[in-house]
Amino acid sequence: GELSYVQVEGAFSQPNSGTCAHMLSWAVSATANCQDHDLLELYCGNGNFTTAVASNFRKVVATEVSKSAVAAAKKNFERNGVSNVFVARMRSEEFTDGWKNGTDFKRLEGSDLKSCEFKTLLVDPPRAGLDDETRLLLKDFERVLYISCNPETLKRDYESAKEEFEIERFAMFDQFPYTHHVECGLYLRRKDGSNKKQKVDEDGGDDS
After folding, report:
1. 187-202 as b/e: b if 16+ CB within 10 A
2. Is 202 noted as a catalytic residue in this protein?
3. Closest to 74 in 3D by CA, of 46, 102, 32, 101
4. Catalytic site residue 183?
5. Pick the catalytic residue: 163, 183, 184, 202?
């Protein structure tokens, strides 16, 4: 259905609404059939993609560092009847520390992280791309949806994960006609057998 968004003055937003609608449709299609697990989203902004794809997942936990963007995201979830999202105002590396190491962050109260089964990761980073810790975090997921405004850092980040993942879908979106700027969407799926060693170790060894 049609989505309605609150935009905050001075905060980041997709400027080309027509192209943005195509991007959202592509993201929804790419993440179809994921209702059996949960989504982790980093850099969620005003909930642009979160609002669109949330119904494809059991639960969504999203992070964003901007206070005004988090407030807008919550309004957008309410405005569009999205009720399965928990959004925390914190940096992606802070969340990773809380999730992986059990560090107690007050801003994560109510997220019930222990019950979450994250298999898909959605990232929409700034032009600088992913930080080192988040780049490593990709390898903990079965699927990754990467929205990029900089093809060069997208390539760099993909290169760091290409041994574990294969490209299932890719799209380019011309947000700024007549300029060299372009938005990209990349959907990665873990290669068959790439996590086999981890499973063997967990099972206590290979009986064959």
Report:
1. bbbbeeeeeeeeeeee
2. no
3. 46
4. yes
5. 183
